[in-house]
Structure formats: C-alpha cells, structure tokens
Design goal:
The structure holds 2 protein chains of 2 kinds.
Chain A (H helix, E strand, L loop, with lengths): L13 E11 L4 E3 L13 E13 L14 H5 E7 L2 E2 L5 E2 L13 E7 L6 E20 L5 E7 L7 E11 L8 E8 L15 E4 L5 E2 L6 E13 L21 H5 L17 E6 L4 E8 H4 L6 E8 L4 E8 L8 E13 L1
Chain B lengths: L3 E11 L4 E3 L13 E12 L21 E7 L2 E2 L5 E2 L9 H4 L3 E12 L5 E7 L12 E11 L9 E11 H4 L18 E11 L12 E5 L12 E2 H4 L6 E8 L6 E4 L8 E13 L2
Antiparallel strand pairs in B: 1-9, 2-8, 3-7, 3-9, 4-5, 4-6, 4-8, 10-16, 11-14, 11-16, 12-13, 12-15
Classes of the chains: A mainly beta, B mainly beta.
Chain lengths: ~350, ~280
C-alpha cells in the first residue's frame, strides 16, 4: 500500500487495491479484459502505485530445463498502459523498467530444490517483482479502467504468470489529481558480447522515436531507468563456485552476517564496462563523456534520478558501447526507460 | 529554458603510491549554464585482462575501499579535508555495491555550480595496496550526477557545499587518539554534520578488520557520544550501515575527538569520517 500522506495530509480514505493476473506463453500478446482494472466501487480512487510480479513456471519434470536467467521474468514481459485513451506508456515497456528497483538483492528469486550434494539442485523457475510508486497520484474516476496490453517477448522460453496490481485510496473527499504518469522505453537488439574488441566495439544507438515524449505537452522527467539482462548467465542458489564477470545478485552469507567479505576476488559486472553517452533534443550533452552503465544508473536502484523537463516530442538519444568481451554471456539485453508525469 | 539531466565523468589509470588529477575538461559541462551536482560516484577495478581466459577487469576491487583516497575542490571551496578514503564518503547500502567496488557520496542538498565552474578531483592509491589486480594498475572512474540549470537567471548568493573530514589511521600510524587536524572544521564557516562513518580495514588483505574493539567519540567540548564510556565499533557503527547519525554543528577551527583502546596495526586500521555541509558564497 502506498504512502497515504502523499495524497492528502490528515486524511487517507479507504485503502483499495485492484489486481489482475494472466498467464502468457512465449510469444503471447494480449489485452487484459476491460474490467480487469476497472474502478467498480462507485467512488473516486487516487492511485499511488503499481506493483507487478512475473513468475516464470518451470516444470520439475522437465528433462532439459531452460536456463533461468537473472532478471529474466521482469524483462520477458512488456506492457502498454493507457487510461481513457491517454497513453501512460509511450511504447512497450519491459516490466522491470516500471519504477526503480527496490533492491537488486531482493527483486529476483530463483526457485530450486536441493537434489543432493553441496551444490546440486534443480531449478523450478524464477520470480521477479517490482513496484512503481507514482510521483503524483493518478485519479481513477468511478467506472474508469486502466487498459493493459501484455506481451511475452520470448526472452525466456517458459510460461509466465503476470500479476499486476494498482493501489491507492478511495473516497469522495479526496483531492483531485490532474497528473498522469508517463513512461517510454528503448529496447535495442541484444548485444553479442563475444565479438567486441577495443578497436571494433559493438555500439547500439537509440533514435528520436524511442525515449520520446508522446504526451503532447511538456513532461516532468523524474528519472531514467537502465537495466541489463544478461542471457545465459545462470545463477544457482546453492552453487558455491563463483562465476567471474557475473554480477552478484545475492549477497554472500558471510558478507551480510559476519561482515567479512569472502576472500575470493570480486569481478566487475558488465555494467562496469558497457559505456554510454546521452544527448537530448534540447542539444544538451547529458552524458558527454562515455561512462560505465553503472555510473549513470545507480546499481542499487537501476535509476538515474534527474528531475528535468522534456518538451512535447522531445527525446533522449543513448549510445551504448561495449569494447571488451564478456565471455560468460551469450547476449546482453539492455533496456532504458524514462519515467515522468504531466499535468492535464 | 528547462533543466536537463547531467552526468559528468572521467577516468584514469593509477598505480600504487601515485596521486593523480582527473581531466578537468571532462568534469565540466560543455555549455556555460549553472548546474547542480547531487552525488559523486566512484568505481575502481584492475587492468584487463588478468586471468587465463582473458576476462576483463577481474580484480579485487573491494579491497581498494580504503586504499583509494579522493580529494574534491570547487575552485577555492574545498569539499574534502585533504584526501579521504573512498569508503568513508558513504555508508554501506547494499551488498551488491559494497562488494562491487562502487561508492557514491550523496549530497544532502544539491551543490550549485556557476557557469564554467567545475569540481576538480584528485585520487591517490596507497603504496601498500594489496593484490592490486596482479598488475599494479587500477582503472578509476569518477562521475558527478546532477542536472543543468539554465532556468537559473543568476547564481544564488549562497550555496550549500558538502564537506567531509576524516581520521585515517593508515596515515597517522599507531596513535590511539586523533589530533586537531583530523575530524576537524578548517573552514571559516560552521559545518552542519549529518553522520559519521567508521570503516576498519585489514591492510594485509584489503578486507574488513576487527570491529569489536572499543571507540570513544566526543564532540569538540569533550562530551562523549556514549555517556557510558567507550563502545564497540560494531555497536556504534553497525555492519549494515557503518554509519552513526549525528545532527549537530561543528564550529570553525574545532574538531571531534576520537580515541581507540587498541592501537591501529597492520590488520586493524580504523578510518573515521564525518559528512556534513555548510553555506558558502557562490563563486
């Protein structure tokens, strides 16, 4: 439940949550039923957050289970959201670009059962979840419905159960909100990390149609989100062997409990080597000198809190460059999003 | 005109015992408008490749935490009291960053920089840095996160400038207590202190040292933070944060008092800092 004090000091209204759930097979692209996220309470609702969970289902009996990849369920599902014809998403947005990461340590869970031995286990799937806390409440009048379209991009060859919920407060005395949240994203082709060299780097660049303001008026950009999906880098909970060049998603037990970091060498993740520059449509060099991904987006929240204005049809262009091989990955799938809001 | 996001950055390679300055050209925006900086981010890793399979950047970067020291100045306005160990610029946040060689000094209030102004940065790698990636070359990356402020018609008369001072026992040796040139306020204006950070380093391994020894911290007037006497470092600075919140003002030319009950040694190097800010006339 969101923070009621952000809606109206001294008055909160009745807490309310609307929930929808659907299972998508790889390649599915569906509209949620129109009534799934409809305000059928007969009173106004001020929504202050959207939560999502993506549960990749992996059968225990599978003889050759697909690889479960860190972050995959949140990346495998893309969504478009609108309210009464107003686009909240400027394009398809991977679920894990909706809002900041609450904590890399906890947002993704790999499910497994031990099958004997110190490191042997069988994967059961993976669950990832996230929380988009609106910077301004969203007014959902009685009878209004959020329209959602979900697409399983097939990054993970598993059925995925997607749960979407919106939460807020309900009551006729609540103040009106004229703010609409807005998000646009850029999902470039996956980078083959085995080929780049210092002299022949791999570079991908967004266009003026990706991270663009399609709201029709100036939006307040609150933050940019940057995520990296590293395909085929498996993470086995019980494994003790350390995979070099692998981002450490789970804290080590000795590190968190006894505060004695393991004596093993800690490798940098790809986001320490993948560099980026950013420009905007106002001819500003937002990141003029190529910087590592993790220096622009905080590793903890995967967010770049920037609080800036972007005029109608304004855009950011991002250039990503990898000039060293990352041999543990078969592919690296970046996703970058801008999150803002505008007043109508 | 509207504000716009901004991240400035630079990179350099450093070896043990060196003290280098980052390129000033990289650390200022290309347009001459005011801008603000909200955080300074630091990242360090060993030279690539160093392992048999040619994987890049694999290095014991977590052991660089206290060996890598930074100094920041905004023109004549110092943001640090000489060189400060990298891990003394922020509390522990999450394991993913704490063990990943990434540190971020988040300012409590934005630092507004005048057009064409810049924060200059120097970095120093301690002579005794262990296991420096096999080869003694470390790549250090630095970034300032903030935004361009062309909407400011003129600079404010006063700005908030962060400040940090530290008692680094890797420099002061085996003395049990700090002196007047550490944990101090060398400025003309009082500093609003927000928190203390205490890290304990093991010089041999680069890992954490013993944090169960006792510490006695006192304000400039001699009043102890813990009225019942010295307290274990891990009790005052829990491992989850290594931070002790403190809301008070440190007058000019005053300093905090810190006393240990165990002399610093090769395997036990406490490093204590305070983070704060003060008002300065804008440039």
């Amino acid at each position: 439940m969101g923070d009621a004090s952000r809606i109206l000091e001294g008055y909160a209204g009745s807490p309310v949550t609307l929930v929808a759930q659907v299972t998508l097979e790889p390649g599915d692209s569906i509209d949620l039923p129109a009534d799934a996220l409809r305000n059928g309470f007969g009173e106004r609702i001020l929504l202050d957050s959207l939560s999502w969970a993506a549960d990749a289902q992996q059968s225990l009996d599978t003889t050759n289970p697909p690889t479960v990849t860190v972050g995959a369920p949140g990346a495998s599902i893309s969504a478009t959201i609108s309210l009464n014809g107003r686009q909240i998403t400027g394009s398809f947005v991977p679920l894990y670009c909706l809002g900041t990461s609450i904590g890399q340590d906890v947002e993704h869970v790999v499910l497994a059962i031990a099958t004997g031995g110190a490191t042997a286990c069988r994967l059961l799937g993976a669950v990832s979840s996230g929380f988009w806390r609106f910077d301004h409440p969203l007014d959902l009048l009685a009878g209004d419905a959020l329209a959602l379209h979900l697409t399983h991009t097939g990054l993970q060859n598993l059925p995925i159960v997607v749960s979407i919920s919106v939460a807020g407060r309900m009551g006729e005395d609540l103040p009106r909100s004229r703010w609409i949240p807005y998000i646009a994203s850029w999902l470039p082709p996956a980078i083959d990390p085995n080929t780049p060299t210092a002299t022949v780097p791999v570079t991908v660049t967004s266009t003026e149609r990706d991270l663009v303001n399609r709201a029709g008026q100036t939006i307040r950009v609150h933050r940019l989100i940057g995520r990296l999906l590293r395909q085929d880098v498996t993470l086995t909970p019980a494994a003790t062997a350390y995979m070099k060049n692998l981002e450490q998603v789970f804290p080590t037990v000795d590190g968190t409990e006894a505060d004695t970091p393991s004596t093993r060498l800690f490798a940098n993740a790809v986001d320490g080597f993948l560099t980026m520059t950013v420009r905007d449509s106002g001819a500003n060099d937002n990141v003029p000198v190529a910087l590592p991904f993790r220096m622009v987006f905080e590793p903890e929240s995967r967010a770049w809190e920037c609080d800036a204005d972007l005029e109608s049809s304004g855009f950011y262009t991002v250039e990503l460059t990898l000039d060293v091989p990352a041999i543990k990955d078969s592919a690296i799938q970046p996703a970058i999003a801008l999150i803002g809001s505008y007043e109508v | 005109m509207n504000s716009a996001p901004l991240v400035l950055g630079s990179s350099l390679a450093i070896t043990r015992g060196q003290s280098l300055q980052f390129s000033s050209r990289d650390l200022a925006p290309k347009v001459t408008v005011p801008y603000e900086v909200n955080a300074i981010r630091m990242l360090a890793y060993g030279a690539a490749p160093i392992n048999a399979t040619g994987e890049p950047g694999v290095a014991p970067d977590s052991s660089l935490r206290g060996f890598l020291k930074f100094q920041f100045t905004l023109g004549p306005i110092p943001l640090t009291d000489h060189f400060i160990p990298m891990w003394n610029l922020c509390p522990v946040r999450q394991a993913i960053t704490e063990f990943g060689g990434y540190f971020e000094w988040r300012f409590s209030r934005p630092l507004v920089v005048s057009p064409a102004g810049r924060i200059d940065a120097r970095v120093q790698l301690a002579e005794n840095t262990p296991n420096a990636g096999g080869a003694p070359t470390i790549t250090v990356k630095l970034a300032y996160a903030g935004r361009l402020r062309p909407d400011l018609d003129k600079m404010p008369a006063m700005i908030d400038a962060p400040f940090v001072s530290a008692w680094d026992t890797s420099l002061t040796g085996t003395t049990l207590a700090n002196d007047g040139i550490s944990l101090r306020n060398p400025l003309a204006r009082p500093v609003d202190v927000e928190q203390f950070i205490c890290r304990v380093e093991n010089d041999e391994t680069g890992l954490n040292g013993d944090d169960s020894t006792l510490i006695d911290l006192r304000d400039p007037w001699g009043s102890p933070f813990n009225r019942f006497g010295p307290i274990a470092i891990h009790a005052m600075f829990p491992s989850a944060t290594r931070s002790f919140p403190y809301y008070g003002q440190l007058p000019s030319e005053k300093h905090f008092w810190a006393k240990l009950n165990t002399a610093p040694s090769l395997t036990y190097r406490p490093m204590i800092s305070y983070l704060g800010s003060r008002r300065e006339k804008s440039l």
